[in-house]
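For the sake of transparency, this paper describes our internal protein records without simplification. An entry from our holdings is shown next, in its original layout:
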Amino acid sequence: MKCSTNCYQSTVSTSFAIGLSFSVLLILVTAFSSNAATPEEEGLTISKEAKLRDLGWQDSSANMLMKLRNKQGQESVREISIKSLEVANDGDKGLTIFNKPRDVKGTAFLSFSHTVGADDQWLYLPALKRVKRISSRNKSGPFMGSEFSFEDLSSFEIPKYTYKYLGDERINDLNSFMVEQDPVDKNSGYTRRVVWIDKSEYRIQKIDFYDRKNSLLKTLTYTNYKQFLSKYWRAMTMSMINHQNGKSTDLVWDNYKFRVGLSDKDFNKNSLKRAH
């Protein structure tokens, strides 16, 4: 059957419309793709949001139990007091004082975290009656025999890492982002860390730490979150497991208080010596 002129024109019009629609769709897809965030940009955005949600708490105090376990499961417990101070346009300040048992009583640790450059950290040892400065080259060493390093005790600051979004995963029964954070500092004990941040409140749920050989070294899990001042979340239990030596350390927090009136004068080397 021969097609009439109207039939031919209709076919051409339909083909043109289909072609035009495809071209418009292609343009839209291309435009969307060009505007889509890269994994690096997305990882940075997620991490910035997590940091942003924890700004403004000012200062805090808390009690903590540090539970150390060896490979055989034998446990020793230390009682600790913690003071923290939020610093505008820089990292936080922290003072850690050991109260029990007797062999560590009076030991005190002072940390000034910084957004850029090496942190300042000091350890007061009552047996020696002197304050020891922690070198930035030694910050990957263990803190008081625990599975936490001096580096782990620094506050999280955005410029300290580069970022990459790895995808989503459900952890602790929460939908979470996975973000790789690579330390900028050449003296870091880690090549990278993978952080799980829940999508609902942007709280850290877990961190995997990779050593300088890029092998999995430790895993830190955060559980039993509680909210303070109707805004700020704190994990009441932090558990660090060392996969390479079989040891673990739990930090169990209690008696959190915020805005208790701490200031810079509560965080200096003299306050270290007064701690005992």
